[in-house]
Amino acid sequence: MVEPSLFETLLLDSFSPLDSAERSKCPQCSCYRKYYCYDCLIPMVEHFPHVSLPCKATILKCKKEPRSKSSVVVIKLFSPENSEIIDCLGEDSSVPEFPPQTMLLFPGPGSKTLSDLSNDELLGIKNLVFIDSTWLQTKSMLRNQRVANLPMLRLENHTTAFWRYQNESKNSLATIEAVYYAYVDMYKEKFSRGLETEAYQGQYDNVLWYFVYTYQRIQNDYIEKKHKGKTFKHIPGYIKNK
């Protein structure tokens, strides 16, 4: 189960823009949104953080799942110049061909850890691909040869803090968590080899800005506010009583 102390070390921008947010009409689609428009991928509040990702993040989002349920489409607001959201199905042509030096983040057979990569391989990563779908739909994605042919990278020793129930292990991360840990672990691996001159300074922490805000809001609602005294039935032990 998630440890609350995980978030205490993150260097995050202030949540005040989110705290003061009210629903308003999206200037592009005219739908009412509170924090950001997940369809148009534009913020509805000022001062959304910007994160400079070291290489491109490509999100293959299953188009059977609504964007409103996705944890990761918000990455396009944090790093608009170095991220891409592709709504697709595994067996259709909407999955693009990927350029050289692309890796798929997935713990499949033959996947490597960051420590398995040579210095040239580690420094050469230009594009990280993440699958944003249910585990059942992920199998369909992996049947697409453009996805299946990518070298796979897996993460180690991370526990999810996601509030949506899933019957996989506690190490099965929400997609936005996977994006965050992939870039942080990559940086730390480079530093350990002398390929970065300074230790990690929190430069990717704001990838989890909206995720942590939502986590804290759920905790607060069940401890102090509208769900006070009720049990969060989806995941036993999820609410951390003060």
TrEMBL record:
Chief localization: nucleus
UniProt signal peptide: none
EC number: 2.5.1.25
EC category: transferase
Transmembrane feature ranges: none
Localization terms from the record: Nucleus
Domain DTW as annotated: residue spans: 33-223
Catalytic activity: a uridine in tRNA + S-adenosyl-L-methionine = a 3-[(3S)-3-amino-3-carboxypropyl]uridine in tRNA + S-methyl-5'-thioadenosine + H(+)
Gene Ontology biological-process entries: tRNA processing
GO molecular function list: tRNA-uridine aminocarboxypropyltransferase activity
GO CC terms in record: nucleus
Keywords: Nucleus, S-adenosyl-L-methionine, Transferase, tRNA processing
Highest taxon of the lineage: Eukaryota
Family assignment from sequence similarity: Belongs to the TDD superfamily. DTWD1 family.
Cited function: Catalyzes the formation of 3-(3-amino-3-carboxypropyl)uridine (acp3U) at position 20 in the D-loop of several cytoplasmic tRNAs (acp3U(20)).
UniProt-recorded name of the protein: tRNA-uridine aminocarboxypropyltransferase 1
Source organism per UniProt: Stentor coeruleus
Lineage: Eukaryota, Sar, Alveolata, Ciliophora, Postciliodesmatophora
